[in-house]
Amino acid sequence: MISQLYLLIAHLVVIVHFLWILFLLVGWLPAYRYKKVRYFHLFGVFFALFLNLSRLHCPLTYLEMWLRRKAGAQAYDSSFIIYYLERLIYIRIEPELLRLLTHLFVLSMFFYYSVLFRKGRLL
Question: Among residues 32, 37, 75, 114, which one has the fewest Cβ atoms lying within 10 Å of its Cβ?
Answer without folding.
Answer: 114
